Every structure is written in structure tokens, then in C-alpha cells.
């Protein structure tokens, strides 16, 4: 886990990591949230709607932003305050996602990082775009 | 820039942040007058004002502000 202080991070700082989405993740997310929508739980139903399999929960993909801030940027001192997220393309079980965050702006008064985050699949397609406001504890 | 000019820009920021064009903002308005004015929105307000007026606040002076009028006075003192 990174332990960056506010002062150690400059505008333009980039961190990234990769994750492969598994069936177990989907089952766990379903159990935690109770979202049993067939688009996520029933492959046949998802196929009938034009998808090539169960569609990964957008919020499961989005939850990787928690890891981006809490483990990588800035890491230990992170306090997520705001996230605006767009789900641009479907994600499927087995996809390997690359989560990347770049610090676009800093605010010295409140020790805040404004982070632009993108999540891409293994084909390089952006599946998720987000803006995050993350505080850095002293 | 006159104090009223500053107040008008501050009103615009409040209406944008709280997405409410009907919001009435006066010198005496404080966080108990606006339901959504919590600590996170306070950060959003202050950051927006730093950008609008191209200035920097000190966290201690921001935390001492009791109402919008004091915020406007603080901005005026820095311009």
C-alpha cells in the first residue's frame, strides 16, 4: 500500500493496477447488495438482450476506484469525498481491467486531490470514466 | 470590485453548488439555513470561491466563518 503525503504528490502523478473480474466477485457482489437483476445473474437473459454474457455490475467495476484511492493514490491517507462515474461499455466475467488515476488538480486549503480515473478492458477500450475528489489525511 | 459585486458572484456559486436558482443568499445566511450545506458542500463552496476569485484561503480562517457575510468580507480583504 502506498503512503503518499499530500506534499509528495504533484499534479500529473499517475498510478495504475490491473484486476481480472471473476464469477466469485460477481456472486459476492450479488450477496452483499441483493441486486439480483438478471442482466447480471442470468447469462441466457443477458444474451437475449444482446450481450455476450452476464454483464458485470457497473458498481462492481466502480468499486475498484475505492482501491485506486485507498491503496494507490494516495494510499493509506486516503479519504474519498466524491465520485462521479460513467459506465461507457459493458464489462464481462473474465475481463482484465486496468484502473488508472491521474491527479488533475490539487487544493492546498483542504489537502485535496482531484483525480481523473479511467478503467480500460484488455482491448484498451474505456469501460468506465470517473472524477474523484479525495482528501489526504495529515 | 465592490462588495456587492463579490456578493453577487458568491450568490451565483451557492446557486450552482446547491443546484437551486431560487436560493436566497444574504449576509446572515449560514449552514443552518440550507439543508444540504454540510461539511463536504462547504469544501465545494470554498474551492469554488478560490477558483472564482483566484485566491487562496487558510483553513483556520475558513473554519472561523459564521455566515456568508463574513465569507464575503474575507474575500474582499484578499482582493
What does this structure look like?
The complex is a heterodimer of chains A (138) and B (79). Chain A is α+β, with helices and mostly antiparallel strands. Helix content of chain A is 26%, strand content 36%. Chain A has helices spanning 23-33, 38-41, 43-48, 58-72, and strands at residues 14-20, 78-87, 96-107, 112-120, 126-136. In chain A, strands 1-3-4-5-2 form a 5-stranded antiparallel beta sheet, covered by helices on one side. In chain A, strand 3 (96-107) and strand 4 form a beta hairpin. The mean pLDDT of chain A is 97. The mean pLDDT of chain B is 94. Chain B is mainly alpha-helical. Chain B has a single domain (3-78), classed as Non-ribosomal Peptide Synthetase Peptidyl Carrier Protein, Chain A (Orthogonal Bundle), CATH 1.10.1200. Helices cover 59% and strands 0% of the residues of chain B. In chain B, helix 1 packs across helix 2 (39-53) and helix 1 crosses helix 4 (68-78). Chain A binds chain B through residues 81-82, 107-110, 112, and chain B through 40, 43, 46-47, 50, 56-59, 62.
Give the overall pLDDT of chain A as a whole number. Answer: 97
**Biggest β-sheet: strands ordered side by side in the sheet of chain A:** 1-3-4-5-2
- The percent range for strand residues of chain A is 35-45%
State the total count of DSSP E strands of chain A.
5
Distance between the termini of chain A: 17 Å
Overall tally of domains of chain B? 1
Which chain pair has the greatest contact? A-B, 7 and 10 residues
Overall spatial form of chain A: elongated
Query: How would you classify the helix and strand content of chain A by structural class?
Result: alpha+beta
Please name the CATH architecture of the domain at 14-21 and 62-136 in chain A.
Roll
Count of DSSP strands of chain B: 0
Beta percentage of chain B is under 5%
Q: pLDDT under 50 segments of chain A (min length 5)?
A: none
Oligomer: heterodimer
The overall pLDDT of chain B, averaged over residues, is: 94
> What is the CA-atom radius of gyration of chain A, in angstroms?
16 Å
CATH class of chain B: Mainly Alpha
What's the CATH H-level homologous superfamily of the domain at 14-21 and 62-136 in chain A?
Answer: Hotdog Thioesterase
CATH superfamily of chain B, please?
A: ACP-like
Element-level helix/strand string of chain A: EHHHHEEEE
Amino acid at each position: 500500500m502506498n503512503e503518499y503525503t499530500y506534499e509528495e504528490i504533484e499534479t500529473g502523478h499517475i498510478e495504475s493496477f490491473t484486476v481480472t473480474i471473476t464469477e466469485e466477485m460477481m456472486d459476492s457482489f450479488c450477496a452483499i447488495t441483493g441486486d439480483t437483476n438478471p442482466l447480471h445473474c442470468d447469462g441466457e437473459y443477458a444474451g437475449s438482450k444482446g450481450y455476450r454474457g452476464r454483464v458485470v455490475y457497473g458498481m462492481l467495476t466502480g468499486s475498484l476506484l475505492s482501491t485506486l484511492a485507498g491503496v494507490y493514490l494516495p494510499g493509506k491517507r486516503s479519504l474519498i469525498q466524491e465520485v462521479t462515474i460513467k459506465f461507457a461499455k459493458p464489462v464481462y466475467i473474465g475481463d482484465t481491467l486496468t484502473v488508472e488515476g491521474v491527479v488533475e488538480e490539487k487544493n492546498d486549503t483542504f489537502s485535496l486531490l482531484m483525480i481523473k480515473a479511467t478503467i480500460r478492458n484488455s482491448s484498451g477500450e474505456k469501460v468506465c470514466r470517473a472524477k474523484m475528489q479525495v482528501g489526504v489525511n495529515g | 470590485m465592490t462588495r456587492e459585486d463579490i456578493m453577487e458572484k458568491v450568490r451565483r456559486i451557492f446557486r450552482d453548488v446547491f443546484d437551486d436558482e431560487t436560493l436566497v443568499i444574504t449576509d446572515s445566511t449560514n449552514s443552518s439555513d440550507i439543508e444540504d450545506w454540510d461539511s463536504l458542500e462547504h469544501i465545494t463552496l470554498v474551492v469554488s470561491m478560490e477558483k472564482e476569485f483566484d485566491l487562496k484561503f487558510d483553513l483556520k480562517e475558513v473554519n472561523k466563518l459564521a455566515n456568508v457575510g463574513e465569507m464575503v468580507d474575507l474575500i474582499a480583504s484578499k482582493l
